[in-house]
Amino acid sequence: MLKNIPAILSPELLKTLCEMGHSDRIIIADGNFPAESMGKNCKVIRADGHGVPELLDAILTLFPLDTYVEKPVNLMQVMPGDTAKTPIWDEYKAIVAKHDERGNNAIGQIERFEFYEQAKTAYAIIATGEKAVYANIMLQKGVV
């Protein structure tokens, strides 16, 4: 046990966050995301039973966002014509604002298939049990 480390962060996830360098990216994926097929060349960390907002908040207590890029946080854009609602994004905005002074200005969107391509080059993918749709979020690490 360690003090001041959010309990939701497993030893494997803590190790991965520590190993990551500046500009490395990590995906916190919803339950529908093809984590295993996208993560063939990176680490896939299982966090079944956990939601994305809880993990995002815990990770951002330790993880600096990149200040050298305009949008170090990226969401998977809703497909044109899709009527899915994304209320979870409001939670993400509040969490990012809690941990980064840029707040909503640090958050961008990436077209769905481009998000998949970028996920293939991520350092790690966290596969969660999140049930919300379009709940995938990509974080780019900064410096401490």
TrEMBL record:
Gene3D superfamilies linked = RbsD-like domain (3.40.1650.10)
Query: Which EC number(s) are documented for this chain?
Result: 5.1.3.29
Query: What GO annotations for molecular function exist for this entry?
Result: fucose binding; L-fucose mutarotase activity
| One of the GO biological process terms | fucose metabolic process
Q: Which InterPro entries match?
A: RbsD-like_sf, RbsD/FucU_mutarotase, RbsD_FucU
**Stored SUPFAM superfamilies:** RbsD-like
Q: Which reaction does it catalyse?
A: alpha-L-fucose = beta-L-fucose
Alphabetic keyword roster: Isomerase
Task: Return the PANTHER family for the record.
Answer: FUCOSE MUTAROTASE (PTHR31690:SF4)
- This one is known as L-fucose mutarotase
Q: Please give the organism.
A: human gut metagenome
